[in-house]
Amino acid sequence: MHPIIALHGAPRVNLFDVVPAFSRNKLFRRDRMTCAYCGQRFHERELQCEHIVPHSRGGGWTWMNLVTACGLCNGRKACRTPEEAGMPLVYLPYVPSRFEDFLLEGRHVRADVHEWLAARLPRSSRAGTRLS
Q: 78 in the Ramachandran plot: left (φ > 0), alpha (ψ -120 to 50) or beta?
């Protein structure tokens, strides 16, 4: 059986216009298990979801308002913005594409399918190499 199957017809909703669902694990994979403030890599159990605009100030659970942070940096930033805390972001958040979202799911993807998906990632994606 072929790993990728194309169907005739058009769906009612263009899936490329739909923002991928957010999850903690996908956020950590998007950010390559790297703290957005100190730039160090950590194990998943040591990471936290960090609101750029604090949740207490109306910051939402969105791809563009969340980054990965270690516990130390998250506690140091507290309920302030990065500017107020004097902690600039090492990288900027972005909304993953549909192709990247499939890779971020953490499913076991065959090597040939992974290459096909990776070839379609936007330049802004940090997922150009195999995600662990």
A: left
The pLDDT value given to residue 132: 45
DSSP for 32-70, please give it: TTB-TTT--B--GGGEEEEESS-GGGT--SSTTTEEEEE
Let me know: does 62 contact 22? Beta carbons within 8 Å.
Answer: yes
User: Full-prediction pTM beyond 0.85?
Assistant: no
Helix or strand holding residue 98 (H, E): helix 98-104
The alpha carbon torsion through 70, 76, 80, 85 (nearest 10 deg) reads -110
Q: 89-123: per-residue pLDDT in tens?
A: 999 999 998 878 877 776 666 677 767 777 777 77
Q: What share of the chain is helix, strand, coil (3-state, %, to 5)?
A: 30, 10, 60
Residues 6+ apart with CB under 8 A from 95: 19, 20, 63, 64
In this predicted structure, what is the pLDDT of residue 1? 59
